[in-house]
Design goal:
The protein has about 375 residues and is mainly alpha-helical. The chain has three domains: about 120 residues, no CATH class; about 110 residues, Cyclin A, domain 1; about 110 residues, Cyclin A, domain 1. It contains 20 helices and no strands.
């Protein structure tokens, strides 16, 4: 799938705005900003117009201030009606006066050539709440983030392999490689796979499992996760089929019950959340989850942030890490570099790895064939010293 550039983004935003599809205009603007593409004055003015028609004054003001911060002229964002009203009561000004007024406006807004600009952080939730009215609880987003951070800390995985006498990290990798193929076969949601792996790891950290039952744990976890995330989850009979009838219906249901009971029914976890960028992030996340040491050393939100960072480096996004991403992930570039380097090293060896289900999954053009991208060797070459 072709990567969108500034022209195509702007054309989409302007088209939505001109067709009175204001929510779509704002949503597209959010997607453009998160992708790392810098907006121009036409995109900004279309979004300000959309906010005006939707009577979203606060959001419009924020977008307007954001435009001023990135150095765009105030005059681009004055409504036509206001311009006409202003021109009807004021005398025409000369070009020199216009330049002087614009300079004063920039100075008043803190935009000068000598003073460094403040980091630009866009309130993604605020804008997306306009585009999607169903998110009526947007005012609780910060609390939700804090809750998931707390949840992540309380359920931090420990190194459980030392307490498992019959299984090891390689067996875990074999299981996950097989689960990824099963997940892909049934075209389940990406979140289903991540939750499946999380449930497997959490269950193994509190329960001793024989190697003969490891795949039973895996398919039962997949069944639980798909019921949670997917509209049409696979059936128990499907799990029997993909396991070559190694386990009966009764065994699968019994293991499903055992997992839920052992985890006290806490199934949800804080999970890693332009199609090419999205698929690249999923690709790196799944490569990381395949590796036991990466999964144990990094909590889910840090792994997700590292996957985003590695994806942006691979796709040559500039800058590789923005102030907006730092604000919402709570992680700086230095905190993510080591994990991201591990993910990129996995990418470099993915085609030759024995466990190559992730690589094969993302060779598919429907997933933007992201595994075929050259690895971000520039990131591997970085030696950071504080």
């Amino acid at each position: 799938m072709a990567q969108r550039n500034l022209v195509s983004w702007t054309a989409m935003i302007s088209a939505f705005s001109q067709n009175s599809e204001y929510s779509n205009a704002i949503s597209t603007f959010c997607s453009m900003w998160v992708s790392g593409e810098s907006a121009n004055e036409f995109a900004f003015s279309s979004v300000v117009q959309a906010c005006s028609f939707l009577k979203m004054v606060d959001v419009g003001r924020q977008v307007h201030c954001l435009a001023l911060k990135v150095g765009l002229s105030y005059e681009m964002f004055v409504g036509e009606r206001s311009k006409r009203r202003s021109l009807s009561v004021k005398k025409p000004i000369t070009k020199a006066q216009s330049v002087a007024n614009r300079t004063r406006s920039k100075v008043a807004s803190g935009i000068t050539t000598t003073k460094p600009k403040d980091p630009v952080i866009i309130n993604i939730e605020g804008l997306q709440s306009v585009a999607n009215r169903t998110r009526s609880k947007v005012k609780y987003v910060e609390e939700i983030y804090s809750f998931y951070k707390l949840l992540e800390t309380e359920r931090c995985l420990r190194n459980y392999m030392d307490s498992q006498p019959d299984i090891n990290a390689r067996m875990r990798a074999t299981l996950l490689d097989w689960l990824i193929q099963a997940h892909n076969k049934y075209k389940l949601m990406p979140e289903t796979l991540y939750l499946t792996i999380n449930i497997v790891d959490r269950f193994l950290s509190v329960t001793t499992v024989a190697r003969t039952e490891l795949r039973l744990v895996g398919i039962s976890a997949l069944l639980i996760s798909s019921k949670y995330e997917d509209i049409r989850p696979p059936l128990v009979n499907d799990m029997i089929t993909i396991s070559d009838s190694a386990y009966s219906r009764e065994q699968i249901l019994a293991m499903e019950k055992a997992i839920l009971s052992r985890l006290v029914w806490y199934t949800k976890a804080s999970l890693p959340s332009d199609n090419e960028m999205e698929n690249m992030v999923f690709f790196f996340t799944e490569l990381g989850l395949m590796d036991y040491s990466v999964t144990i050393r990094n909590n889910p939100s840090k792994l997700a942030a590292s996957a985003v960072y590695a994806a942006r480096c691979t796709l040559n996004k500039t800058p590789a890490w923005t102030e907006t991403l730092k604000h919402y992930t709570g992680c700086g570039e230095d905190q993510l570099r080591d994990c991201a380097k591990s993910l990129v090293s996995f990418h470099a060896r993915a085609s030759e790895n024995k466990f190559n289900a992730v690589y094969k999954k993302y060779v598919n053009p429907d997933r933007s064939a992201v595994s075929l991208h050259p690895p971000a060797t520039s990131l591997l070459a970085v030696n950071h010293h504080k």
